[in-house]
Amino acid sequence: MNAALVIARKDLRQRVRDRSALVLGILAPLLIATVMSAAFGSAGSFHTTVGVVDQDRHELGAAFVAMLRSPDLSDVVTVRSVATPAEARRLVHDKKLGAAFVLPLGFTPAAHGTATARIEVLGSSDQAIAREVSAALAESFAAQVNADRLSVLTALATGTSAARTAHLIAASARLRLPVSTRSGDIGAKRLTAISYYAPSMGIFFMFFGIGFGARSYWLERRSGNLDRMLAAPVRPAEVLAGKALSTLVFGLASLLTMAVVTSVFFDAQWGPLPAAAALVFAIVLAAAALTALVAALARSERQADGVASTVTFALVLLGGNFVFVSSSPELLRRLALLTPNGWAMRGFVDLQSGAGASAAVQPVLAILAFTAVVAGAVALLARRPVSS
Amino acid sequence: MTVSAATRATPSSVRRTLLTCRNLSRHFGDRVAVDDVSLTIAAGETYGLLGPNGAGKTTTIRMICGLLRPDTGWVDLDGRRGRRARALIGYVPQDIALYPDLTARENLVFFGRLYGLGSRALARRVDEVLELIDLRDRRDDRVEDMSGGMRRRLNIGAGLVHSPTLLVLDEPTVGVDPQSRHAIMTSVRAFGAEGLAVLYTTHYMEEAERLCDRVGIIDRGRLVAEGTRRELVARVGERDRIDLVVTGDVDALVRACRGVPGVATANRTADGAQLIVQDGNELLPRLLAATADLDAVVRSIEVSEPDLESVFLHLTGTALRE
């Protein structure tokens, strides 16, 4: 075991001197996590500016604008008055507006009578979400108007005098549909994008260490240093253990740096410290075991590179390091649980959502089981003779 | 570093046997790489394993160093076998096996630690080795910034850092400039003088002659002869070697030479013929007369006293460098 420590120490010294390893282990995951958070981080707090062309200039048009400007919608839309439909189209095209509404001349009289009253929604496929949200708002308003009309017609049909029609219309206009929706999360805390992508990108780049470690084993062989080590009283398994150990230490340093920096500067939530630390240690241990496995499986430096890349990308694609596993199809969600990183991400998501530290127990055990299987395979492969 | 005459003068027969290899054999598929090789090396002795490329030298030392499991046979080093024996061996591979991004000192410390040397002893020994290989001033330079000669010396130093009792050098002068070659040979002589047993493989006859107390001649995996230079030369009967550079019908010339009384062997070489003869200078006129009428022109003639090249030719029927 002493030889493994000596080899790991030497490898770490070399990695620290290799700037590309530092870039890949520390800087790249930070950068990518930040970029992905910026890209997806606003998904839960959509906001757009909409234009209103009020050619109607009657009470229904004013009611529509009032609805858009209501406190309930202030987080979603900002309303801007626009003079003409042509100008509204230009502003939408230029992305100055997310979408625009055109309330045509005669909109209110039509709604009071039997003619069809239309609200035109101007949107573009470049801003599909804004267009869909605007259409939904228009439909919501139309549903409200229809409900008002229905209530007035019902009153009239039941014998209310025509003299009270104006009063009924005014009263119904103050009503709101009794059913409303409010979205919320099951967990105690809302999962933010940076909280997801910090561990996922950290694990993804930490997995690159598998290739580093495995390739360095074969580089040792090509350079004759492996022979030199094995001519000393060192077992082949100790060399593999040394490579795995250096991956472990470098991976821990990489993920811990990621955790500290994203927590301090980006307010990422990693969950309770002991549970998050256990998850980090378990997934790094799995990566270390995979390093030894790839080194033992490969038969050349190039093979080590190829096998490591295949393993890394298969794991991160299946494990959900690029996409939220929860929004994936059922099959992918099941496949993710065949990977150690899939379990780790599940554990992190649970912890970040406010679950207690015990939520990490099952993922940690699953990752350790995976590691044990891999380590067993390494032990078998290490018995093969080094030279043929 | 100077060579101790007293140590070199001690006959190997009275020194303690350090390394014993018995009946080592190794096959690679159908090819026999090493065939029943047995040899011993005494403490403080420099033993040369001489043979052409592909003769089985490297395979033999890889088995001795525990890097290759023999099909048959065993290796004993000072009463130890396996992992414990490996701790006594300093292995210096043919190619430079160092870490370019580490300094000279860091390389030596790494290899020393693999042998379990403690920090204090290791630091002292690393300084000694750096002094020995004349790299003390370059101790903190990275290997990638060193010259080829310095790397060669450090390559040997890495095999010495744990104070082995047997130093195994696998063709350390291949591809080396004359100056570095001289430095390496001087160092190897010094190691022997200081009581370190050395196993030195080479296909350069001059190196084996100059450095080694005893030489084992290996060809096609078999150890065909072994002994001191004097003992080996005696096997060819103190005969001279004549190297002829010939153009034209070389085969006819070789056949003609074989018919001349006093010619022991005559073989074709890359640029002519090589003869082992009883007395080269006396025989030369008769040889030229015998080949005068042939369609072959002798461009140069070189008569050499008996040496290991002659021995190799005599024993194997081929020149060492063929």
Q: Could you describe the 3D structure shown?
A:
The complex is a heterodimer of chains A (388) and B (322). Chain A has 388 residues and is mainly α. Chain A is built from 15 helices and four strands. Chain A has helices at residues 2-17, 19-40, 59-68, 85-93, 107-112, 128-157, 165-173, 193-223, 225-231, 236-266, 273-297, 301-319, 330-336, 340-352, 361-381, and strands at residues 48-54, 77-81, 99-103, 120-122. Chain A starts with a helix and ends in a 7-residue tail after the last helix. By secondary structure, chain B is α/β, with parallel strands linked by helices. In chain B, helix 7 (178-193) links the parallel strand 6 and strand 7 (197-202). The two termini of chain B are 35 Å apart. The model of chain B is unreliable at 1-10 (pLDDT under 50). Chain A binds chain B through residues 2-3, 6-7, 10, 13-14, 17-18, 223-225, 227-235, 385-388, and chain B through 28, 62, 65-69, 83-84, 86-87, 89, 91, 93-99, 101-102, 106, 110-111, 113-116, 158, 162.
Using DSSP, what is the number of strands of chain A?
4
CA-based gyration radius of chain A: 31 Å
Poorly predicted spans of chain A = none
How widely separated are the two ends of chain B? Answer: 35 Å
Q: Which stretches of chain B are poorly predicted, pLDDT < 50 over at least 5 residues?
A: 1-10
Main sheet attributes: strand count, strand direction, barrel closure of chain A: 4 strands, mixed
- The backbone outline of chain A, from C-alpha atoms, is elongated
Spatial separation of the terminal alpha carbons of chain A: 25 Å
Keywords:
heterodimer; A: 388 residues; mainly alpha; 4-stranded mixed beta sheet; B: 322 residues; alpha/beta; 6-stranded mixed beta sheet; 4-stranded antiparallel beta sheet; 13 strands; elongated; disordered N terminus
